[in-house]
Amino acid sequence: MLGRAALTFLVLPGVVAYLVPLLLAPVVDEAASWRWIGALFLVGGTGALIRCTRDFLVAGKGTLAPWAPPQQLVTVGLYGRSRNPMYLAVLVILVGWSVWFQSLALVAYAAVVGTAFHLRVVLHEEPRLGAAFGAQWLSYRDRVRRWL
């Protein structure tokens, strides 16, 4: 299961949060003193993403992949503060890239990704969680905010 979790981490958020932004990023030759701010976002978002992946594996007995989802509702760790911390972590990473490269294209990409995340959560994930976890989901949904 750990191998599947690592693979899905590399494939799913890896592509959205790392590969695509680096393909969209402008070439920057000079070192800039403000890049450390972007690096803080990158490190913080990556740490949160790793923590969420771990919580899916340990508490949820599954992965972040739609084809191997958690078998139990994950409400621990960052999921105690937000119902969607993994998506938030990806958005924090995208903000980090935007700051690092000072790129409006990356800001636009982050906006598109954020909109897609919201639609996926509202139209697909929340109904599925309600069907799968019933009263436990309803209690969690009422206790913890969707985003922040």
Summarize this entry quickly:
The chain has helices at 2-24, 35-58, 85-101, 104-143.
Chain-wise SSE layout:
Elements: H1 2-24, H2 35-58, H3 85-101, H4 104-143
Helix pairs in contact: 1-2, 1-3, 2-3, 3-4
Indicate how many domains the architecture comprises. Answer: 1
Helix content: over 70%
- Shape designation: elongated
**Average pLDDT metric:** 91
Descriptive labels:
single chain; 148 residues; mainly alpha; Four Helix Bundle (Hemerythrin (Met), subunit A); 4 helices; elongated
Characterization of this structure:
The chain is mainly α. The chain has one domain (2-143): Four Helix Bundle (Hemerythrin (Met), subunit A) (Up-down Bundle), CATH 1.20.120.1630. The protein has 4 helices and no strands. The protein has helices at 2-24, 35-58, 85-101, 104-143. The longest helix has 40 residues, at 104-143. The relative contact order is 0.15. The mean pLDDT is 91.
